[in-house]
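subagent[fold] <- orchestrator: predict structure for attached chain, return tokens only, no commentary.
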Amino acid sequence: MSSEVSMVLQRRTAAALLFLAGCAPVATGLYDSAPIDERGMASCRWSGRFNPPVIYKESDFIRGYFEPTNLAAYRQAIQAPFTMPPRPLVRVSVLDFYGMENGPIYLESEVSVLALHEGQPGWFVLTMPVTDGDACAGGRNALGTPKVMRRITLERQAERYVGTSYARGGRTPGFTMTLQVGEPGEAAREVLRFAAPFPELNLLGGHVVKLGGGLRPAYDLERVSPAIWKVRLGEAKLDFPADPEGLLHRLGVGRPLAAYWGQLRYRYSITPR
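subagent[fold] -> orchestrator:
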């Protein structure tokens, strides 16, 4: 698998361990980590509908990088063995896994903060809502991802993408991220270069699980691998309630720094390291 493809393989259900049932507990902290069963939604449990490995074929997503303003809350969100990085960043994503060869079709959102593990940067996942119980349970049990059941949507227009991750109950948005397609400028491209190599960091049974990370920035993926990638850069706007208990509000998520839409057409499964 190329490093370009592995860049986006960061938040998925692990292929070989999805037979595990139930929701493994994850550490509590600043973020919402409780297994929530919403009325009208499947519970966070492995159903046995699929036999491993789960195989992905096609998906698309929007991703934005933002400046945090509450560094005290940022430090509180980072759990041991992770530490504060010299350049704090918040990453927000909305993804749609609509093309599956084997496994559930589902949407996912994610809020991560940049952290250090043994001196090396990575994205520590704070919360990862999903719309499918198998994806929820598989991620929790195999990767330690703090998945919860939520309603999520991703709307696509000619020059605009809108991703919404809903709060408990599925009626009010937890956040809405809007990507307006356009050239963002060199400062945004620098952020994309900076962020590209870093893997995702999760905790499973006290051990660090790493996923993904790549060598090429997002804006270079389609040029190098046009049969696999489509990428559109843009500017992101992030809206969320001024709720004292809300994760993004507590982090003081502020100025947008870089954003893009990506579509990945590639057959793969996930093995954590």
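orchestrator: received. Logging for downstream: The chain has a mean pLDDT of 86. The chain has six helices and twelve strands.
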